[in-house]
Specification:
Helices cover about 20% and strands about 15% of the residues. The chain is an alpha+beta fold.
Length: about 120
């Protein structure tokens, strides 16, 4: 379930499905993600202030969808971007590249492989 307003179209909402594309940057800068589902030890201990988090998702994603997951094909057809699979826990994500750390098992980026979605 996304913590932001979703369009309801999977391809348009891929960047906001938890753990969202913005989580790591939010936790690094603020100590927690936008929905406060993921928090750092510094946030818990009070070393990081519990300040409001600025929205990182560009406004045009709300209007046009998530462009790095969509590719226009000819007559307006959409195709999903590359899907990556964590070799440790099986987590799947559709992004331009795999995350630096798996949000489930914390495996490094190198442990991801390209995954072919069967239609």
């Amino acid at each position: 379930m996304p913590c932001r307003l979703a369009s309801g179209l999977l391809a348009d909402d891929m960047d906001i499905i938890c753990p969202c594309n913005y989580r790591d940057a939010d936790v690094e800068e603020y100590g927690c993600c936008l929905c406060v589902l993921y928090v750092s030890d510094d946030w818990i201990s009070g070393k990081k202030k519990h300040d409001p988090i600025e929205e990182r998702r560009p406004q045009e994603y709300y209007e046009k969808g998530y462009p790095s997951v969509m590719e226009q094909k000819g007559a307006g057809g959409k195709e999903m971007a590359q899907v990556y699979r964590c070799n440790v826990c099986g987590y799947l994500c559709a992004r331009e590249e795999p995350p630096d750390l798996c949000p489930i098992c914390r495996a490094k980026k190198e442990r991801f492989e390209e995954f072919e979605m069967k239609g």
